[in-house]
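Weekly structure sync, notes
Attendees: PL (lead), two postdocs, one rotation student
Agenda item 3: pending single-chain targets
PL asked that the sequence for the first pending target be pasted directly into the notes so everyone works from the same version. It is reproduced below exactly as submitted, 122 residues in total.
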Amino acid sequence: MRKSYRVKTENDFQRVFTSGTSVANRAFVIYKLERAENKHFRVGISVGKKVGHTAVARNRLKRYIRSVLTEEKAKIDPKIDFLVITRPYARDFNMAQVRKNLLHALTLAHVIKEMPDEVEED
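Predicted structure, written out during the meeting:
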């Protein structure tokens, strides 16, 4: 994911925290702030030391989250900034578990546009 898609500065993080809305599941908290001037969405990812005691573990979770967001980029509302905060419950998640839980949280937060379920062909 390119750097232009990231919430980078402390001021931007604080603006989303204080002015945005939040939704959570057991693994992730999503803070969302609508911004009409955005060309595309921006995301900030936070994985604290309670989630992974080593940088390797925290960076692995961040890679998984970025991968899911890259795959789902077309479904994400372009006019928002949002933060993904990882909870300790996600400590030992594999890629499939991160994907399932993150998509659930993003859907609850209305970050992902609802897509109709794929129809199985006979």
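Discussion points:
- The chain has one domain: 3-108.
- The helical segments are 10-19, 55-71, 95-108.
Action: rotation student to compare against the earlier draft before next sync.
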